[in-house]
């Protein structure tokens, strides 16, 4: 009988050891590859990409020409000559044009405006549906793909929440992460972006899509009294909104418009003057409205300066920072050996040029005075301020969504080129100043809501229609004309004026 030759015991041991080493190396290499892949994936998903956004443009029936503005103001029967003079002055100097939009209840309402809950719901639904339908169409993303939803509307917070209304309409997933922000004011949009970005950082390599919906309720915020500090809101705020799609998925980078850079938030709520300068409250007669106090410019300036102190070192090139540091060191040495007069002259010698790190400036169009003040602080020229000025003229102050109309203007004018940096700055009640930078990933040319009017901007001012229509309020016989034009008796006019 044939018996095969058995290998020597030493050869058997060597074979077993080699097999063990091979298996060990295979598992080790596999583990290292998987670990490196996870690290690469995690690093890739730490970015926050702006895929696209859609601003809200109501129908022409909601536009506010000069004559209609006057008709709406006439509904407030307690206003006198002095209140009309104040409102005309504010509107004339506001930088707002004749094509802004108002809620339907303000335009088609009765003589005495009494907003109802249904008016606010209708206003929000129209904005949400208009922007989200357009956003999903442009991005070809389905509502059920959304992992995070953030809605910010400051002045209207019903139950169920506005975010819940969106989920109900678009039948989003039951595991979607939902946040409904209120009371954040005109800076809420960047707060929502910061919230999404922080969620992306905590995802640990998971790829997510987030939608931010930013708007404001004007229909429920109309002030029917005669306190001048609370009448400002009626003159400045207009209807608008925007929806944005954000993601941390590196595979969608080629489709993205921008990637988020630095985001800085400053809050002065601990200071009483800053906290109370923008406040939803009631006047002495118990009429609710939004109060804008005299301390507002001071609070805005302080929050802006503090915000820039944190932002500037993060966005300027290293060369510029080194030059500023060397100059600061030289000044501290010189201060000890030269006269005080010469020191002041030396300190005023150099100003920080943000244009060395940023090419475009997206400033909150809260009013002509706000734009001019920020422009002077940053040493910006007319070209830099044009997008914010024209947004204010065409759409007015749409609160938190205003920044995205400004960005849309830049796109419509084809200013945004690959690798450009955009700086966004916004202010809000609290008092807050928030800022962020975006890096443009490709040349952008989508005019969005500006497509039908971008060619006639920048608009050259040839006169103010509000002043032409209501300039008589500044005449010597203003009270007599007021009686005639407003169809009121002289006795009633005297009573309301006093």
Automatic annotation (TrEMBL):
The keyword Transit peptide does not apply. Its EC number is 2.3.1.-. One of its GO terms (cellular component) is membrane. Pathway: Lipid metabolism; fatty acid biosynthesis. InterPro entries: 3-ktacl-CoA_syn, ACP_syn_III_C, FAE1_typ3_polyketide_synth, Thiolase-like. GO terms for biological process: fatty acid biosynthetic process. Pfam families: ACP_syn_III_C (PF08541), FAE1_CUT1_RppA (PF08392). Keywords: Acyltransferase, Membrane, Transferase, Transmembrane, Transmembrane helix. It comes from the Eukaryota. The chain crosses the membrane at residues 14-34, 178-200. The active site is at residues 186, 267, 360, 364, 393, 397. Residues 356-439 form the Beta-ketoacyl-[acyl-carrier-protein] synthase III C-terminal domain. This is 3-ketoacyl-CoA synthase. It comes from Zostera marina.
């Amino acid at each position: 009988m044939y018996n095969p030759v058995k290998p020597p015991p030493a050869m058997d041991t060597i074979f077993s050891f080699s097999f063990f080493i091979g298996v060990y190396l295979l598992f080790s290499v596999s583990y290292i590859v998987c670990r490196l892949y996870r690290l690469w994936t995690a690093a890739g998903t730490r970015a926050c990409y702006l895929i696209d956004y859609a601003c809200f443009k109501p129908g022409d029936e909601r536009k506010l020409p000069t004559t209609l503005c006057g008709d709406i103001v006439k509904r407030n029967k307690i206003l006198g000559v002095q209140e009309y003079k104040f409102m005309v002055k504010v509107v004339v100097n506001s930088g707002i044009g004749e094509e802004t939009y108002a809620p339907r209840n303000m335009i088609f309402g009765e003589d005495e405006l009494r907003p109802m809950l249904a008016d606010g719901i209708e206003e929000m639904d129209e904005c949400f549906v208009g922007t989200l339908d357009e956003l999903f169409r442009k991005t070809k993303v389905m509502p059920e793909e959304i992992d995070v939803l953030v809605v910010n509307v400051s002045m209207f917070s019903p139950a169920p929440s506005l975010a819940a209304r969106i989920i109900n309409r678009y039948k989003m997933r039951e595991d979607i992460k939902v946040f409904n922000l209120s009371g954040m004011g005109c800076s809420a949009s960047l707060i929502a972006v910061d919230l999404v970005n922080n969620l992306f950082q905590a995802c640990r390599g998971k790829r997510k899509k987030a939608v931010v919906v930013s708007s404001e309720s004007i229909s429920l915020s109309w002030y029917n009294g005669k306190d001048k500090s609370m009448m400002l809101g009626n003159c400045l705020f207009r209807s608008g909104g925007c929806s944005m799609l954000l993601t941390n998925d590196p595979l969608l980078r080629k489709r993205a418009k921008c990637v988020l850079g630095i985001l800085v938030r400053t809050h002065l709520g601990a200071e009483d003057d800053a906290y109370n300068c923008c406040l939803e409250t009631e006047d002495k007669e118990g009429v609710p409205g939004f109060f804008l106090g005299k301390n507002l410019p001071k609070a805005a300036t302080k929050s802006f300066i503090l915000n820039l102190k944190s932002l500037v070192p993060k966005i300027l090139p290293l060369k510029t920072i080194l030059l500023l540091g060397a100059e600061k060191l030289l000044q501290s040495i010189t201060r000890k050996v030269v006269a005080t007069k010469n020191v002041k002259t030396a300190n005023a010698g150099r100003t920080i040029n943000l244009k060395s790190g940023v090419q475009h400036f997206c400033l909150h169009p809260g009013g002509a005075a706000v734009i001019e003040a920020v422009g002077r602080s940053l040493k910006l020229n007319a070209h830099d301020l044009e997008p914010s000025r024209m947004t204010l003229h065409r759409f007015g102050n749409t609160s938190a969504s205003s920044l995205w109309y400004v960005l849309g203007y830049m796109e419509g004018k084809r200013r945004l080129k690959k690798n450009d940096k955009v700086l966004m700055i916004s202010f809000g009640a609290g008092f807050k100043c928030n800022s962020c930078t975006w890096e443009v990933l490709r040349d952008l040319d989508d005019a969005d809501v500006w497509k039908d009017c971008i060619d006639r901007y920048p608009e050259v001012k040839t006169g103010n229609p509000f002043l032409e229509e209501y300039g008589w309020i500044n005449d010597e016989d203003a009270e007599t004309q007021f009686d005639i034009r407003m169809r009121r008796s002289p006795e009633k006019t005297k009573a309301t004026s006093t």
